[in-house]
Sequence to fold (315 residues):
Amino acid sequence: MLIDKYGRKITYLRVSVTERCNFNCTYCSSTDPTESVNEVSLEDYLRIIKVLSHLGINRIRLTGGEPFLRTDFVEFISEIKKLNIDVAITTNASLLSESIITKLDKLNIKRFNVSLDTLNKNRFYEITKTRLLNRVIENIKILSSYDINLKLNCVIMKSINSDEVEEFIEFASKHNAIIRFIELMPIGPHYNKQLFLPLTEIIDKLIKKKKLKEITPDYGYFDNLGPGRYFIYNLNKIIGFITPLSNPFCNNCNRLRITSKLTLRSCLGYNYEIDLKNVSSDDEIKLKIFEALQTKPQKYSFDTTIKDCMRSIGG
Ligand code: SAM
Ligand code: SF4
Fold:
């Protein structure tokens, strides 16, 4: 079992399987998905994941960049499943299809987070620089027709999409999904401070309108919801707010990250990584894991912008 120096049990891993992306979200990216980058091989990821699974990691979220850009992604998932690890995926959903979703369902992948920041076509283009909104919505519909736990993640930006909150709640509910609004974090070279909006402002407004009731960990379903504050909206819809800046949730952090550069990172909001390339043995990997655990800070330090981009760290 991995326990850090603050007594937190580490059982959860996030892996960025590529830093490439077919979207260019204003706050995240500026890439060409066809550009050749030296991607880490499946074998190299699996070697580290195997050691981590022996040390108690039992849940993994695969993310990126856009993970479905990797042609070997489904094969990778099936290899991880052989280790008896629960696998979840974060995606922009633009590259999904009925046949991929069916394959994933056969692999018993039951947890998907889909990122979607606007329901408006023009805004979607402004944010992502693609015109794939309809395809994303079609794929959300397909996902919602399966027996899965679907969450929609929406990064709220001041004067860009903060007026869409209630529309998003209805959209998510219609597609059997839980919507989670996320605060813009100072990560990577594309962060624009002017767009930051503390989500406590939105929470307070909805509470004033008597539309929200906060739910607490004693609520049966809470463990599956992830970090953040959760509420019942209009008496029947669960919604979440992920507020790393206005209301940090580091006390319960249970995660480590493997980045797309095959480094081990103990915290999203801390510029420190341990290189896992060229490790010679499982014992050496173990030593590096324990070293990373030692570097895990008690809480985020977003005082300075995190220099790596979210695509590489794995959002
Ligand atoms: N491409 C996939 C997607 O968009 O879901 C997976 C990778 S993306 C980096 C994962 C999540 O990170 C997305 O929900 C995205 O909105 C979020 N993200 C990226 N940069 C962020 C930032 N600076 N602040 C908050 N969330 C961010
Ligand atoms: Fe791509 Fe996701 Fe970043 Fe948007 S948020 S550019 S979809 S990795």
Summary: The chain has a mean pLDDT of 92.
